[in-house]
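=== RUN LOG ===
request id: a7f3
mode: sequence -> structure
chains: 1
length: 211
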Amino acid sequence: MQLENLILIAPPILLALTFHEYSHAYIAHRFGDDTAQKYGRLSLNPLRHLDPLGTIMIFLVQFGWAKPVPVNPYNLRNPKRGMLWISAAGPLSNMLLALGSGLLFRFLSDVAPVAQRNSTLGLLVLMAFLSLKINLALAVFNILPIAPLDGSKILFGLLPPRYGQMVLTLERYGPFILIGLIILGRVTEISILGGLIWPFVDFFSKLFAGI
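=== RESULT ===
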């Protein structure tokens, strides 16, 4: 990745990952679990949340991760309901950032519709565009019901108790399924995950930013 592209994409990625993990920690705290706070994760400092290898992988192969926020369900007043909202907080925070980025893109594009890409305003337009796409992709990816993604815990919170064993089975094999789908997409150049994610990204890009 060229240095110019790295400089442009780094701030949106850092903001998206940091706000995502902070939101998990904040909702956990509000629901009665202070584990994340004790570990210094109730913070908007990116260094508190970034996983070194996961961050490097994002820039190298456009897939990576941050450090999971520690949550103790036994501290929650209602563990099942609490874990549902704690898990949903991350994707919802990225949707909120995507909305803000889309509105900013609309505003800046109207102010300078012919801004040059290498001008300050043009670079801000491009960064808002990248922030929109990154946050939408992160939100949609994380709501997929595949462990260890947030969507698997959201699914567990929505399903009746009789499906508990099925959820546990999905959690056991979920990481292997996820890795397999990623590798399959890389080898065959037919991305199943991309086919699931990008239609939603395109829809909300048009809704939020008109693009």
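=== NOTES ===
Helices lie at 3-30, 35-38, 52-61, 79-111, 120-142, 150-158, 164-188, 192-209.
The mean pLDDT is 88.
=== END ===
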